[in-house]
Design brief:
Blueprint: E1 8-10, E2 17-21, E3 29-31, E4 35-42, E5 44-49, E6 52-57, E7 60-65, E8 70-75, E9 80-86, H1 88-92, H2 98-106, E10 110-113, H3 117-136, H4 139-158, E11 164-167, H5 176-189, H6 196-203, H7 207-218, H8 222-240, H9 245-251, H10 257-266, H11 273-278
Parallel strand pairs: 1-3
Antiparallel strand pairs: 2-9, 4-7, 4-9, 5-6, 5-8, 6-11, 7-10
Length: about 300
């Protein structure tokens, strides 16, 4: 298991992306605020995630929250798969079963494997269709992809299968229960939270200690994470509604247009909400469809 597990690469988010390629051993873990979905067409890969090692094999779905340090530690020489990332704020509005979201935020990896040939063919078809529609950048086709991904997550809830290889102590001292409690407060209230003190009061921790705890567990700045969730919420509304930009700003938790514009441009590589909407929200990278899963896109703001 090469690499130092205590060194972690940090990024706020990938956003909504779909790409394919080969899994590579990652010398160190990384974190991001998105929900991530992996699928292998062939081969296998071992993931270290949340203090556990998970085995991913061909024709298997895996979903997890990227806020827990994770990395590929072993893979077959020949492998090929697809990665999808979705803003956590989007998934929060899907009204998934409570135990699904709480498990993801606590560091579980949800797994599901197809064994029937017809199901495998269908899964492969859908993944290729998602990539094709995503590359168009068309608003309606992007919406279709997002809806279909939601359906897939719901199906996985009822047919989940485990592939846990071993148990090991998490490199962080923060318990899964404690982290889940903090994240629950944030994800349920991020649009109305006034400051870090409000979160600290809800979880009965000193604000300074809370910020240190969150940073240690996820590698992310606590309040920047709240702001990112608000921006991601605004992105979803820009993609799926015709609401005015001011209404979207208010609905996303921003009290002033200037604050909204400043935060939005910070996390969209300088694009304004109007430009984001005009570009149909998400334009795939034009440098090919294959991307290493641990290479951060240039538009992703890193955290020191």
């Amino acid at each position: 298991m090469p690499g130092n597990p205590f060194i972690v690469d940090h990024a706020m988010a990938f956003g909504f992306r779909i790409w394919q390629g080969s899994f590579f051993n990652m010398p160190r873990a990384h974190v991001h605020s998105d929900i991530e979905i992996n699928y292998l067409f062939e081969g296998y890969a071992h993931y270290l995630h949340g203090g556990h090692v998970y085995h991913l094999e061909a024709n298997q779905w895996a979903i997890f929250w990227g806020g827990i340090p994770h990395r590929v530690i072993e893979k077959s020489q020949r492998n090929h798969g697809v990665w999808l990332t979705l803003p956590l704020a989007w998934v929060l509005h899907w009204d998934l079963p409570d135990n699904t979201l709480s498990r993801l935020l606590a560091g579980d990896m949800l797994l599901n494997i197809a064994t029937q040939p017809a199901q495998i063919i269908y899964d492969h078809y859908r993944l290729k269709l998602w990539q094709k529609e995503f590359r168009t950048g068309d608003k309606e086709q992007l919406r279709n992809v997002i809806l279909d991904i939601e359906v897939q997550l719901r199906r996985m809830q009822s047919t989940e299968s485990g592939a846990l290889l071993e148990m090991s102590r998490s490199p962080t001292a923060v318990s899964s229960h404690q982290l889940a409690s903090i994240l629950t407060q944030i994800t349920q209230n991020y649009m109305t939270l006034a400051n870090v003190n409000a979160i600290a009061a809800a979880v009965q921790l000193h604000p300074k200690y809370l910020m240190q705890l969150f940073k240690k567990a996820t590698g992310l700045n606590l309040w920047e994470y709240v702001i990112w969730l608000r921006v991601a919420h605004a992105q979803r509304l820009l993609l799926t509604s015709d609401d005015t930009i001011i209404d979207i700003a208010l609905a996303s938790g921003f009290n002033a247009p200037s604050t909204f514009y400043q935060a939005f441009r910070k996390y969209t590589d300088g694009a304004t909400p109007r430009e984001f909407r005009r570009q149909k929200s998400f334009t795939p990278q034009q440098n090919g469809s294959t991307q290493d899963t641990h290479t951060l896109p240039s538009a992703v703001p890193a955290i020191s």
